[in-house]
Amino acid sequence: MALEGIVKPHIRSLEPYRPGKPAEELDRELGFEGSIKLASNENPLGPSPRAVEAVREAAAGVHRYPDGASYALRGELAKRLDVAPGQLVFGAGADEVLELLAKVLLGPGDEAVFAWPSFAMYPIVVQGMGATAISVPLSPDMVHDLPAMAKAVGDRTRLVFVCNPNNPTGTSVGAAEFDRFVAALPPTAVLAVDEAYFDFATRADFPDSLAWVRRRPGTIVLRTFSKIFGLAGLRIGYGCADPELADYLQRARHPFNVNRLAEVAALAALGDDEHAERTRRLTAEGIEYLSRELRGLGVEVWPSDANFVLARTGPDVCDRLMRDGLIVRPLHGFGLPDHVRISVGLPEENERLVKVLRRLREAGGLGTELPGEDLE
Ligand SMILES: *Cc1c(COP(=O)(O)O)cnc(C)c1O
After folding, report:
1. Residue having the nearest C-alpha atom to atom 6 of ligand 1
2. Confidence of residue 15 (pLDDT cuts 50, 70, 90)
3. Closest C-alpha among 8, 192, 216, 32 to residue 101
4. Burial of 233 (0-12, 13-18, 19+ CB in 10 A)
5. C-alpha–C-alpha distance, residues 61 and 197, integer Å
6. Which residues touch 172 (CB under 8 Å, ≥6 apart)?
7. Is the peptide bond between 16 and the residue preceding it cis, with omega within 30 degrees of 0?
8. Phi first, then psi: what are they for 187, rounded to 5°?
């Protein structure tokens, strides 16, 4: 290839992020309509109607550049989080804030520590800067092994990601463990707590990560409008950092990185507590339903503090589900060939999935049990 000699080696060896197949694409392949996607942890209720209305109203103004400072959204969010407006850094999705962190902190010779399996963007942004990714296996119960991560942090570590609740496992860590871990981190490493699923977490001892932003320089908490707020297609997320780190991230970002429609939609969605509450309820019921039904089919399911479940269905189940118009996320790229991640859908979507899985089980195509092992 003509460019092989000039493209950076750390880019040439990058494994691209593989998003889930869109439902429309599967419809085309199968030649029918009605495929559903339970693979990207989107909000099955759709966006807040208030956000849709705000986008409609703002559409006529898109010949203008966005407000590069996101003034109105920044003010409202700062009030809600009880932080200074200057501590917020907005991005085209939290993904962009992850990338800004890598750009500001990492280069060849630097290291970033994160758990694995965890969010697929971490190795991409780290390697994208030519830095070294140090991934630390989850504990056997699929939870962040924070003591092992603490040991992996060294003199060259500039960035530590903690994904809580963790994607793709849905598991979370509690305050006592988290606080112990953060208290022992050296000041030469920035801590990024990825809380994309914060709003779904139900454990009583969920860590107060913003308290660490207030007292530990070099700390950032990432959140997104893509999940509970249902705005994944508009691309907006943010980081809340200590003022110094926030300032460096602001310098590194493009002036108009968040588009005008995303800004107004996010502000409107923030004000729609009812939609967020409905989403939370639907999600909790969906997690409960899926966990119970899948376990009833002999499938191992992990406890989830997010809007999806990790399930050990056995190999090739994604492909079989696909033939019935159901898209779930395969996890063989994470070294979990027997597992899938299933996003909570609408009740009828969850039921359709369970129905197909039941049929698969009856045909002997489900589960990882040894032949002859009793399923019940
Ligand atoms: C979805 C997700 C994000 C960010 O999503 P954006 O759409 O880029 O805001 C970040 N971290 C995790 C763990 C996620 O699952």
Report:
1. 93
2. confident
3. 192
4. exposed
5. 32
6. 143, 164, 165, 166, 201, 203, 206, 305
7. no
8. -65, -10
Task: Please give the single-letter amino acid code of residue 226.
Answer: S
pLDDT digit string, tens, across residues 296-339: 999 999 999 999 999 999 998 999 999 999 999 999 999 999 99
pLDDT digits (tens, 9 = 90+) for 66-122: 999 999 999 999 999 999 999 999 999 999 999 999 999 999 999 999 999 999 999
Report the b/e string of 122-155 with b at 16+ CB within 10 A.
bbbbbbbbbbbbbbbebeeebbbbbeebbebbee
Which residues have CB under 8 Å from 267's CB, separation 6+? Answer: 54, 72, 73, 76
Quote the CA–CA distance of 164 and 157 in Å, as a whole number: 20
What is the residue whose two structure tokens read 């779904």? 200
DSSP structural state of residue 47? S
Output the residue whose Cα is nearest ligand 1's atom 14: 196
CATH of the domain at 65: 3.40.640.10
Ligand 1 binding residues, C-beta < 6 A: 41, 93-95, 119, 163, 167, 194, 196, 224, 226, 232, 237
Domain tally for the chain?
Answer: 2
Tokens encoding 214: 């207030």
Tokens of 288: 């409960």
Q: Is there a single domain that holds both residue 284 and residue 258?
A: no
Domain assignment present for residue 112? The answer is yes
How far from chain centre, in Å, is Cα 363?
34
The residue whose CB lies within 8 Å of the most ligand 1 atoms, and thus the one to mutate among 173, 194, 334, is 194
Residue-wise pLDDT for 173-227, tens only, equals 999 999 999 999 999 999 999 999 999 999 999 999 999 999 999 999 999 999 9
CATH number where 342 lies: 3.90.1150.10
Residue 331: inside a domain: yes
Q: Do you find a cis peptide bond into 243, omega within 30 degrees of 0?
A: no
Q: Is 24 exposed, middle or buried (0-12, 13-18, 19+ CB in 10 A)?
A: exposed
- pLDDT tens digit string along 108-124? 999 999 999 999 999 99
Query: Pocket of ligand 1, candidates 224, 228, 344: which has the most ligand atoms within 8 Å of its Cβ, to mutate?
Result: 224
